[in-house]
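Subject: sequence -> structure tokens, single chain

Hey, anyone have a minute? Need the predicted structure for the following. Not urgent.
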Amino acid sequence: MLEDSFGRQFHYLRLSVTEACNFRCQYCLPDGYDGPTSEHFMTLKEIDTLLQAFARLGTSKVRLTGGEPTLRRDFIEILRLTANTPGIERVAMTTHGARMEKFASTWKEAGLDQVNVSIDSLDPRQFAAITGQDKLRSVLRGLDAAIEADLEVKVNSVLLNDFSQSRLQRFLSWLKDTPVTLRFIELMETGDLAQFFNKQHQSGSPLKKQLENMGWQPLLRRKDAGPAQEFFHPDYAGRIGLIMPYSKDFCKTCNRLRVSAPGKLHLCLFSENGIDMRDLLSTGNVEEVIQFLQHALSQKDATHYLHEGKTGATKHLAMLGG
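Reply:
Had a minute. Here:
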């Protein structure tokens, strides 16, 4: 089992397969994607070596992220490879959802268990203003297709300062009959968007108190769960999660590591530069990768230092998929 010097065990890998995305979300890529092209990202063979090493070290859950992971032409091959790696018990992905209506059942057949979709507003005009794409209705049809395909569905919504009570009520009304988990995520500071963060960051603590006062109750965490504090209510088909990276002891339960599309190991979303693994992965030697990972874990810090304003090398969230 991968374990760091603080006794935290790592069951969960977030694997970015591309940095590219065709949405222009205000808090991520407001000017659109202008990064490396596909030849700079790990090959299928390198991903295979990486997955085998992590699985042999006790990783049981893998999340495929981007950018937008489905932009890779070989995404289905990557999905099948991940699902068929011995030891990997659960495969998830994070997507903007624009292709979900067409491909949800195909992804399920290829081995996908869970999909997380970004929806920052249920108002089509506000959704378009935030994402740069007028595709809310298409994404919502995709959610229906994912539920019909028997995928576990989670929806991510970033808390911004213009998050109003009417927007919350619209989400709550939607959750009455929609069996998804809606996670509200505190905006995190990145290198390219410090000014936007200072203007728009909103703590999730007041929302947590409001939900508790409304009768929402906490759920127990699975060992491979992400960082969300999740709540249920007997009168709602859906659930609510809160991801609050600026809260006390947020990093205490960290159970996940990240590998970027160019093949760098990131011990934290906001680690300095990542540790280059590409040459090692290209050899196909799984045992050497295992030794590398075990040694690298000794360098993991106790916290992300976000509360001190340190954002590391993360210029925007598309680099590592959050």
